Amino acid sequence: MEVFAEYLEKIENPIHRDRTEKVLTWVINKFPNLMPKIAWNQPMFTDHDTYIIGFSVSKQHLAVAPETVGINHFSDEIVQAGYDHTKQLVRIPWGSEVDYKLIEKMIEFNILDKKDCSTFWRK
Question: Is the pTM of this model over 0.90?
Fold first, then answer.
């Protein structure tokens, strides 16, 4: 979690900070082979130097970004979880429960789908 300490300190709202820290810690514990890093001022996780998932904070939600392919693949499940999404991110409102099973599925999907990927982003 050291890599995310400075990012977390900058989150002013303690509820948002605590939830973000909890989600990031969960990813670290669930997927210890992923590399945590800060890039583009956001916490993210990579596998063999390819992007797997990223997170960001806004006033209204915690955003989860599994790339467009991940959004498209899980679009129905995202809606069923009660979340809104765009082409690039899933919005988890601060007042909603975090669907860790869905995040787990997105991460597992990206790890498998990008196992032979040699670039940071999908082409």
Answer: yes
